[in-house]
Input
Amino acid sequence: MPARRNPFRPTAGATPPILVGRHGLLEQYAESIDDGPGAPWLLTLVTGARGVGKTVMLTELGDVARAKGWVVIDETATSGVMERIAAQADRHRSELGSPDRARVVGGSIGSVISIDLDTPERPVKSWRQRVGALLDVLAGHETGLVVTIDEIHGMDTGELAELAACVQHLIRDGRAISLVMAGLPSAVNDLLNGDVSTFLRRAERMQLDNVPLRMIADSLKEIFEDGGLRISEEDLAEAVAATQGYPFMIQLVGYHLWRRADDQGHLNHEAVTEGIEAARQRLGTMVIAAALADLSRMDRTVLSAMACTDGPSRTADIARAIGRDSKYVGVYRARLMAAGMIRPVGHGQVDFAMPYLREYLAGLVGLAD
Output
């Protein structure tokens, strides 16, 4: 194994060494940051199946904004998220200096700022006022605020409605604010089709899909060469195919191949085969098993019935396999789509949304619970 530290990061939310196939999306967002208030991608919904890199994309979008001097607040949609955002806004405002209580003497956002605290601060209470106070300070620096919220499908609908109303007013006021949220596609659709502001339904959709295999091959080859690893074209092609374009699997395969390189940095066929198998096993324990644990017994029964076929499953066939009617299966079909476990592939047909889920359930990869 080479002395250089393994660059791959097969951990949920960890930023990979190279963000494969996402540069165009980042450029779109960077352009909107440059254009300022009213630019389209400042209000964005990032969606995609489990493991496609939604959290990583939020991190990367935040980094794009930070590089341009914007303040970024990262949150997850759990109870109390609105207050946590407001509290962070208060902290940033205090650090930068409020126009209500302080005069900026010199410096920039990235440096120490000297302030005069002679003027008493007026009370700021509502979420909109607290965030607006930070935006007032940032306007003086010709920058703005980005709020990212992960797992948006878990957000309380009341808080979501409040967030939408407040951000909408701030945008109407010409404030430099960006709201970027991420979640599973079907769950996000259900949430937005409910009793929330039409404002959020007009957000740009950033749909993250699997990465083209050619891009994966180029990226893995570049990373291996930079690290002094040598791998044959045939073995590289086998490793790339094993990822099935799934972003998290790219990290797993890369990580386990890197660990199996010899002292001269050579990866032989046996090492590649072992690395791929280790990656598949790890996907089973880290991602698939955890996802299945969140499901009901009947959810898992429906998935097991699907695993008995070699391709997409029809609702009628699943119903026949589990001894229920199609209407009953339809309820669980919708639940599993919302959970990001399956996806529609045609009229009345669904397939697994994660690679190796079929094999896992069939007992070919890992040990199904």
